[in-house]
Amino acid sequence: MRAVVTGGAGFIGSHLVDRLMSEGNEVVVVDNLSSGSMDNIKWIGSKGFRFLKRDLKDPEWAKGIKADVIFHYAANPEVRVSTVNPRVHFDENLVTTFNVLEACRNLDIPFIVFASTSTVYGDARVPTPEDHKLNPISVYGAVKLSCETIIGTYSRLYGIRALILRYANVVGPRMRHGVIVDFMRKLRENERKLEILGDGSQRKSYVYVDDAVEATLVAFRNMDKFNVYNIGSEDWISVKEIADIVVEEMGLRNVEYVYRPFEDGRGWPGDVKMMLLDISRIKNIGWKPKLSSREAVRTAVRSLLNG
């Protein structure tokens, strides 16, 4: 298989690249390195691997590329950014997705796999199935939903086979944002006090990156013309419990937690307070996570401390 991975120097994308290359596929990574890092790529010089430093906002980004599938993982993943600079998500997520779809259409690339997010559901009943009402409460979630919509339209109009994957919070080695990274950074600056955005009761599902990549490939191997799957754990964990794990794994004691709650105890405007995905659909095709949310968080913390 000839695969293009956009954002392949980033967190999830680079782990997907490792798996695709280890299985003997040809892989082209396209990344502008705005948030990704060449340190995440170990395949330079390997047979069947190419790296292209290109910006997906350029309509000509796919020049010279031939592929069977595009795994579209390039995006700005910072939900909080949209509260102060929403244009970032429009440019980095929606414009880039349109240009990827145009590449599929113009270059006859038959498959696209899109990394979407649980935030498209907004404040939803839990566990949340794929057919739940989509009502995002952040610009990030709204833009990701817009991407899903335009992908679905291209699939119907041009016959591009599309796979939408709505990930819970993915954690593991190489991650550079999110609550775990935030807590570790703050505790390195001050071992006695930890600022926690929200009231600590926010409860969400976490999935380890190896589980997420395995789910991605299981879904891809079973895809039809257009499919949507939730990818997450079957349980959830509170922000306060994550803080406890980080403190414990860093070998700290008597850390004072200072809570900074927004409305209803949320961490910031647009923060989904409770998120647990119903993963019955993807379990029916043969995948389930090996690690629980708590295990995923603890394993991720250890990998970051040892990395």
What keyword list fits this structure?
307 residues; alpha/beta; Rossmann fold; seven-stranded parallel sheet; three-stranded mixed sheet; 14 strands; 36% helix; 20% strand; globular
Helical content class: 25-40%
Q: How many distinct helices?
A: 9
Order of H and E elements: EHEEEHHEHEEHEEEHEEHEEHH
**Strand count, sense and closure of the main sheet?**
7 strands, parallel
CATH superfamily of the largest domain: NAD(P)-binding Rossmann-like Domain
Low-confidence stretches: none
Rg from Cα? 19 Å
Globular, elongated, flat, extended or rod-shaped: what is the shape? globular
Instruction: Give the distance, in angstroms, between the N- and C-terminal Cα atoms.
Output: 31 Å
> Could you please say which CATH topology of the largest domain applies here?
Rossmann fold
Query: Could you give the order of strands across the largest sheet?
Result: 3-2-1-4-5-6-11
CATH class category name of the largest domain: Alpha Beta
Average pLDDT value?
96
* Proportion of residues in extended strands: 15-25%
CATH architecture tag of the largest domain: 3-Layer(aba) Sandwich
Q: Which structural class is indicated by helix and strand composition?
A: alpha/beta
How many β-strand stretches?
A: 14
Number of domains: 2
Oligomeric state of the chains?
A: single chain
Domain NAD-dependent epimerase/dehydratase: 4-232
Pfam family, one: Epimerase
Family: Belongs to the NAD(P)-dependent epimerase/dehydratase family.
InterPro entries: Epimerase_deHydtase, NAD(P)-bd_dom_sf
